Amino acid sequence: MIVPFYSLQNTNGILQQKLIEAFQKVLQSNSLILGENVEAFQEEFSKFTETKYTIGVSSGLDALKIALKSVGIKKGDEVLVPSNTYIASWLAVSLVGAIPVPVEPEEDTYNINIDKIQAKITSRTKAILPVHMYGNPCEMDKIMDIAQQNNLYIIEDFAQAQGAKCKEKAIGSWGHINATSFYPSKNLGALGDAGAICTNDKELFKKCCLLRNYGSSKKYYNELIGYNNRLDEIQAAFLNVKLQHLDKWNNERRKLAEFYINKLQHIHDIKLPVSKSESYHVYHLFVIKTTQRNKLQAHLRKKGVHTLIHYPVPPHLQKAYNKMGYQKGGLPIAEKLAQNLLSLPLYNGMTEKEQSYVCDKILDFFNSKK
Question: What one-character DSSP code corresponds to residue 106?
Fold first, then answer.
């Protein structure tokens, strides 16, 4: 059996006709930039995230960059970021001239370790950028308390956690301003690059609208030095179609994750995903931890099971950040996770037969090691 790591057949495929119709409406309209589709999506995504305002932008990285810029993060400022996140979280900080300051994660949830945050705060710290890794919500109530005590901004990166909740409150609504990505493989994916910013602050909303559109609210009149980072009308039209199905898709992902957990929980050589109490994990990825990661991945590949590693090189060891002076061993937990984590196939429409096959091949591998 061949089991792909990811398939869009049961998201984009089953909605093909509606997506085509949405495209045709845009094609036939005279409104192609910041038109009715973007406005409609912003309104509906605000309802979904339980926020007052959404600003559609061109990618998740642009969403982070503009969110940071909107709260005044500038050259020389420090922003606390997870040491084990995808590099986009760091890049956004660098792109506004600030310094990403890594905080090591918890070894079970893979989210930023609350107990390590305070020690990283200096007089130059202006914000904390928590990332909800793999769809698993951070403990946002505790992070918000730390931010309030230290007069810091919170910018949530919820690119992997659309629809997740902490204490029944939507992820993406906790921070002062928050950013997400609609990269095609996300739980809510566009048919290309796209992203959004969410906030309850009217002034930040206005500023983000300016920043994404050349610093302009009126054509040919520019109030700020801005960017061309607008959400495309076509992608907004596609997202309007798909957003209606996101809750159902997230529920399905949770059931798929439960199947894996039930089948694999007795294998002592692997660690399964862990969620904090009162959190709603949406399993953008189903990630296991094992010291035999590379051998297991090779075994599964031979058996037709496709897996991925998120992420093989942590940001501090990337060439892009050589100038920061980090050496191997400098952030040991992030490095350990990079060596031991493996993402198993999990996608909407995945069958029990496919999941059983994946689990059987994992069991075969560990049984052969006894």
Answer: P
CA distance 263 to 267: 9
Distance between CA atoms of residues 151 and 103, nearest Å:
18
- The helix (H) or strand (E) run that includes residue 109 is none
Mean pLDDT for the chain? 97
| 8-13-18 Cα angle (round to 5) | 130
Residue from 257, 242, 224, 216 nearest 355 by CA: 257
Q: How far is CA 161 from CA 7, 151, 177, 206, in A?
A: 19, 26, 15, 25
Label residue 370 by pLDDT band (50, 70, 90): confident
3-state secondary structure of 102: strand
Q: For residue range 244-271, what is the model confidence (pLDDT) as tens digits?
A: 999 999 999 999 999 999 999 999 999 9
DSSP category for residue 123 = T
Apex 211 CA angle, 32 and 146, nearest 5? 125
